[in-house]
Amino acid sequence: MERITIALSTGLLFAVLLAVLAPSPALAIDCGKNKSHNAFFGVHGYNDRLLFMDHPKKSGSFLRTVSADVNSGQLRGYINYIEVLDQYNNSKGGCAYLTSGGVRNNNVAFHIKSQRSEGLDFIVKVWGTQY
Known about the structure:
- It is built from one helix and nine strands, in the order H-E-E-E-E-E-E-E-E-E.
- The protein is of the alpha+beta class.
- The strands form two sheets. Strands 2, 3, 4, 6 and 9 form a five-stranded antiparallel sheet that branches. The chain has a four-stranded antiparallel sheet with strand order 1-7-8-5, with no helix packed on it.
- It starts with a helix and ends with a strand.
């Protein structure tokens, strides 16, 4: 009986740790560890064309975070390569979270969030093959 109790306790502890430490379903750029929070997805091919570009930019607000959503909508092509370029390269840039779509899809969406008291300035470029 003692072995069963220990096994159940260990299993429960492992399950709780896994639930707490598992990453969220959205893909996030490594925030706070690099000077710039750039991200690159996929492979840029020779025949790829620029399908979508956006430049979300917001000023900071004292002791608050600011955020922006970038959504390409339905593109007339398939995405092969995505660049998310943080224009703040002084460790004060924001984080971009991939919320839907992406490479091998015809749409992509990001949620971009600044650090506390800082602004955000990103350039999002989506490359792919048109149909």
